[in-house]
Amino acid sequence: xxxxxxxxALPVDEELKIQKNRIEPENDxxxxxRISVVTGIHGDELEGQYVCFELIRRIKxxxxxxxxxxxxxxxxNPLGIDSITRGIPAFEMDMNRLFPxxxxxxxxxxxxxxxxxxxxxxxxxxxxxASNIYLTEIPQIRVNAVHEEQLIPLAKExxxxxxxxxxxxTVLESTLAYSLNSIGTPTLVVEMGVGMRITKSYxxxxxxxxxxxxxxxxxxxxxxxxxxxxxxSRNPKDVAYLNAATGGLFVPAVRHGAQLKEGELIGRxxxxxxxxxxxxxxxxxxxxxxxxxxxxIVDEGSLVGRLLRTL
Amino acid sequence: MxxxxxxxxxxxxxxxxxxxxxxxxEGEEAVCIVGSMRGNEVQQLYCCSRLxxxxxxxxxxxxxxxxxxxxxxxxxxxxxxxxxKRFWTVDNTDINRMFPGYxxxxxxxxxxxxxxRVISAYRFGIxxxxxxxxxxxMPHVRMMDSGLEDTELAKQFGMPYVVLRKVRPYDTTTLxxxxxxxxxxxxxxxxxxxxxxxxxxxxxxxxxxxxFLHKQGIAQYHGHDGYLSQIVKDVDMVSVRxxxxxxxxxxxxVGEEVGRGRILARIIDTYEGEVIEELTAPxxxxxxxxxxxxxxxxxxxxxxxxxxxx
Lengths: 311, 310
Ligand SMILES: [Zn+2]
Known about the structure:
Number of helices of chain B: 6
Order of helices and strands of chain A: EEEHEHHEEHEHEHEEEEEEEEE
Largest sheet of chain B: 9 strands, mixed
CATH topology of the largest domain in chain B: Aminopeptidase
Distance between the termini of chain A: 47 Å
Mean pLDDT of chain B: 95
Bound molecules: zinc ion
Number of domains of chain A: 2
Oligomer: heterodimer
CATH architecture of the largest domain in chain B: 3-Layer(aba) Sandwich
Distance between the termini of chain B: 48 Å
Number of strands of chain B: 18
């Protein structure tokens, strides 16, 4: 059943609505266990759109196997999705810096607070992101070190290739995931693919992961595919950031996910005006390239890739 | 006066990105003044350009105290100003959310680092800045309420108000906050506007800064002393919010004294022209901030009032 989680009137003849689709078992099982899938907080990230579609389609195919509640929120930031805007248009504000929100606050804070209220109490929430328009990521889950204990067991069931435990930072305290985790609703942040695109194979991989999670939580009784064992990285020293030494156009020599030897060429930064190569980006250690630059224009400092050390 | 390049990045098809500083005097790093950091901060740029001109004249007249160095950086982000885009050209990040910066990080982290390395050495830091919501302010000096601030110092600007801002998580990456952490006394200077020039409040800010320099023995300036500043905490200001979205028709102006119950603005239906909401003053006070756009969303704080002291 599609319902409205929060709504506000806009100035000219339009209602802003955040909607969700709740799927429940045909016959009431008495279980109130619930999994929530959330995406579209960043309006330019679309990978989660396909995940929502495919998840609903596959549940409906075998509805008899559903034993709990599945809540799907495909568009947390509808105005952003419609206008290819990362943040909330007009407010120039990153929606993922507004949580837990404020029911008495301005429009954006109110929406954030209503979303929090609605998600609270889920067995698990998946917040699906798609990196940004500049970088492509292999399917991964990012975990704030302060919530590591509760989240790693769940992250292992989600069929991702990589779980990245990162350090705490004050700025990240205003994300949806941090806010929900702080009040005891486990929330996994998925990053996969690239902004403005849909990578179907990643979407299918993620849907398999969600079914597996549902099975572990007793929400699904149908068949599920075996899930991948993710690499779990806790030590910041195992991740190398590759920042452009100079501006230009980045032309990759390998694909993301590649296993690289130290010194191997990752890509070149070229100058189309002079025909020269401004810099060569090489692997600083043996490792797996889990992030690579998708958008070719780089400035000095722009991230062109991230490498996870081979242990 | 010496003109220096403080930070530079090689461009591809554009001229190099340069942050330029104007240095007056030598010796102790006394005061640093920073202008626009976002591409729409034109008033902030204008205020700094006035100060550069003024300080150049004062230096020639021997009115700057020897042994004290003044640095003015009119613009930390010429690339964005030149294309009239608020944030960084390629990745849309905000330099004022990148402090103290990181020399091996992303572009705007590198810019923040390159600039902060130079300016963190100063005893006083003054930044012309803008509010995240479009609107008009009473000119004021703002400090972070971090426990490290000295409000008596802020009064020396002689601006009508000194506002203490409660620190929020996202403030920890701003220049003002990091200046304070690195033991610079940091002030944010707010004039009336951002995207358009307001000469009156620019002049007032200029007078305020020169008065401050005079009181600190950094320069000789004999303008009028300005106001006896009133100190206000931002959390003590009274916000007036819209209940409905529509056309915003103000009935008062910034700086005006209003009595409780006075109509501040009307919200008009965008199709039918009817008044759908009247916003009234909940207290006796002074209009400190007013929304600056013709349209408003619902639940928007369109006014902030300073409660009138008895
Ligand atoms: Zn995102």
